Amino acid sequence: MYHQITLVGYLGNDPDMRFTPNGQAVTSFSVASSRKYTNNSGQQIDETTWFRISVWGAQAESCNQYLAKGRPVLVIGRLRPDPQTGSPRVFTRQDGSMGSSYEVTAITVRFLPGGRGTGSYEEDLGDEMGGVETDDIPF
């Protein structure tokens, strides 16, 4: 069996790269994906879902070098459930409300143009996206 998840969102923090004892790079960052809609009573709802992303190998090094908080990304990967519950990781926010975090192991990370990060990756964007022109992206 196989599953795959595709996410488009903005980095919630700067990437954090570290190395395993055998020297393999792993980079972690969070991605927020939002949607706005109007419910049946006419109230505007802004719904944000957070994902914790882990990227391995050479792609981890590229993410650490070129991504920054606020940058938009497309992530293709697989969900990694909490080993104890089989569900997303549940936590209590500082204001006392409950929240959840979905863990994703990235297979592919695509750098999207725009955002408010401080890194500069536009000159390498064509290489990272396999030659796709940014005007051809449908979102």
How would you explain this protein's 3D organization?
The protein is mainly beta and 139 residues long. The chain has one domain (5-35, 47-126): Nucleic acid-binding proteins (OB fold (Dihydrolipoamide Acetyltransferase, E2P)), CATH 2.40.50.140. The chain has helices spanning 58-66, 125-128, and strands at 5-11, 16-19, 25-38, 44-56, 72-80, 89-92, 98-111. Strand 3 (25-38) and strand 4 form a beta hairpin.
Short characterization:
With 139 residues, this protein is mainly beta. 9% of the residues lie in helices and 47% in strands.
CATH level-two architecture: Beta Barrel
Number of strands: 7
Detail the poorly predicted runs: 118-139
Structural class: mainly beta
The SSE string, one letter per element, is EEEEHEEEH
What's the rounded overall pLDDT mean? 83
Number of helices: 2
Q: Give the full name of the CATH homologous superfamily.
A: Nucleic acid-binding proteins
Helix percent reads: under 10%
CATH fold descriptor? OB fold (Dihydrolipoamide Acetyltransferase, E2P)
- Write down the CATH class: Mainly Beta
Neighbour order of strands in the largest sheet? 1-3-4-7-5
Strand content: over 45%
| Integer tally of domains | 1
In angstroms, what is the radius of gyration? Answer: 16 Å
What's the end-to-end separation, in Å? Answer: 30 Å
Major sheet attributes: 5 strands, mixed, barrel
